[in-house]
Each structure stands twice: as structure tokens, then as C-alpha cells.
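Handout, page 2. Input:
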Amino acid sequence: MTVNIKKCTFEDVRLLHEVSVETFYETFNHQNSPENMKAYLEKAFNFKQLEKELSNSSSDFYFIYSYEELAGYLKLNTDGAQTEIMGNDSLEIERIYIRRKLHKQGLGKHLINKATHIAIERSKEKIWLGVWEKNESAIAFYKKIGFVQTGAHSFFMGDEEQIDFIMTKSLV
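Output:
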């Protein structure tokens, strides 16, 4: 398998929008109401919001390609861009989304490895992420590669409050 990971730029906003909506919808539409799904997609992945995130110097986006096909992306946050106060020694994996047809090909592991490499380069001591408590396959994947649940926080899908587990992996 030929895998390529490329840092996203501001010029990638349209492609980022497309893959964000597609992957989020594929993953979560069957467990959420159409109204809440629509509200979340419009809020989280509109062009203005994505441009703001791409412009944040404490956030980075990376596309992953399988052969020549865009397979998904990774969003990393440090410092004040982290969605929870985790300290300057932490790097957050805010999003790791892979197109459904390309699941089970090891692409998520490539993105985790990229995040780990970047965290080590930046002298971070841990990486962390939030994962929906009902996303059992993702939780199992993260546990398998060394993440442990260290907390939980609220996540709002439209008007519905959901719980994300906070999972952390020590790098020291």
C-alpha cells in the first residue's frame, strides 16, 4: 500500500470541507437525528469555520492518501487550541477521520504515528483525544495502540449532549 500524508494549507479548504462532511456523516449519521446531524455539520464544517481553524498557528491539518485517493485527515491542536485544558506538554488529536470505504487498511495507525512523531518533535509528553462513548470500534483501536481513558467531557451534537471519553497516551 502506498500511503502519503500531506500538510493541508489554506488553499485546501474546499477539499477539507468535502472530506469533513463526508467522513463525519458516514460515521455518525445512523446514531443521530437528521436535524442534529445537519446542525452540527453546518456549524463545525462551514467554510468560515474551517478557514479559521486552518489559520490557527496552534492547529495543523494533514490529509492522508491511499495510493492517489484522498482517504481522510488528521487535525492536531497544541497550546490554547486544545479543546480541553491539558497543559503545554500535550498534543490533542481533535479529528482523525477516514472514509468508510477505506477503513480497516491501517490508515488510522499511520495518522496516529504522524501525530506521535509531531508530538515528540515538539517535546510533548502525551497525546490525547476525545472519542464518543458509543464509538466502540474507535475505542478498541485506541486501547490497542496504548491509549487509556483518563476522563470524559460533553460534546454537543445539535441540541443533544453526548459524552466523549478522553483517552491519553504517554510519550515518556
